[in-house]
Structures are given as C-alpha cells and as structure tokens.
Amino acid sequence: MSAGAATAQSSATYAKTAQALPTVEPAPEPIDLRLSLGTTYDGEGAYRCTRVALEFAPAISKNLGTVIRLASVVGRPNSLLERQAPNQNYKSAYLEQESVFYPFGIHKRIRLGIGVGGFVGYYEKNTYAYLKAVAGKLTDYSLVSREGMHAGLVGSLNLDVAIDAAQRWHFGIKSAVENGIGSNRISPAHSLTVARRL
User: Fold this and answer.
1) CB < 8 Å & 24+ apart, contacts of 125-131
2) Which of 57, 87, 121, 156 is the Cys-Cys partner for 94 at CB 3.0 to 4.6 Å?
3) Which domains does the chain have, with CATH numbers?
4) Can you give the pLDDT of all 198 residues of the chain as single tens digits?
C-alpha cells in the first residue's frame, strides 16, 4: 500500500471514529428552589420577629447566580409590659432580588456565596405612643399604627452544604443585613435554609 493510500485510509478511519463519538453537552447551570426560616427584627429594630422566605435561585455561570425572594416577617413585643397593651404586632411582606457571587464555584459540595441586591415591600406596625404602669401593671396607654412602603439595600453571606451525592438537596445558613425603617439603619437577619435543585 502506498503512503498516500495509507494516509487516506487513516483519515477515513479517524473521521468515522470522530463521528461515532458522542457529543458531550456542557452541564446546565443549576436552578435551586429554597425555603428559609429564621429571625430578624421589626423594621424599627424594637423586637425580634420570625422571618420566612421562598427563593427562586438560578445560576448564571459557575461563579455567579441570582436570587428572587418573597419574604414575610411577623412578630410581637417581647416585653411583658408591652404585651399588656392590646394589638401589639408587626407584619411585613417583601420582594427581594440579589446577585450572588460564589468565589469557589457553584458546583462545589460546600458553597460559599456573597450576595448584594435590593428589596421593596409593605409593612404595618401596631404599637403605642406611651405606656403608664404601676408595679408592673399597665394602667394607661395610647395606641398608634404605622404602615407604608419600605425599600432599601440588602447584603448577605450564604453557606450551603449538599447532603446527597447528586447535590440535589442542600442545607445551609444565611446571615443578611438590610435597611431598617426610620432611625433603624441596619436590620440583621439569620436563617436556616433548605434547597432543592430543579
């Protein structure tokens, strides 16, 4: 066999082999559905409240993701004196959006994320203008209600750990700070999270 024929046969064999090999598609970036439960403060920073949030969190690249979050905060005063006054409570609902940077990658079993974004929502707080008490017993009070729109910035630190080999389920912890209402400049929040990869 001549050198030219051998080269042609080799090229044909290579072409057939290349055609037989399956095309490897890049893995799609993950999308997480996340539920969180934790604590924060009422918008004015007076007392602790319960915070619940549902998140839709698609990845944009291996180091960047975005989060769209619906959050609700409810609570009432811890003080026994304040609880003697009627209708003392706080409730709010927010739509939040964050961009999250994963410095070590989003496909790791342990994921660290740093988020920054904004939020907008509505709050209602039923509180008091003044309280008067004798020997710890409420004797006189004046009630007041405040409500309205609330918007600002949010930043967060997120740590998630995959609990199965396929990394479909993640448990995590989250700490965040966002703008409070009025003179309350910063309102911290801490949550436990559970996520399911879609």
Assistant:
1) 125/42, 125/43, 125/44, 125/89, 125/90, 126/87, 126/88, 126/89, 126/90, 127/46, 127/88, 128/82, 128/85, 128/88, 131/81, 131/82, 131/85
2) 121
3) 26-80+90-120+149-197 (2.40.160.20)
4) 555 555 555 555 555 554 555 555 556 678 999 999 999 999 899 999 999 999 999 999 999 999 999 999 999 999 888 989 999 999 999 999 999 999 999 999 999 999 999 999 999 999 999 889 888 888 898 999 999 999 999 999 999 999 998 889 999 999 999 988 877 778 899 999 999 998
* Token code pair at residue 137: 């017993």
State pTM to two decimals.
0.80
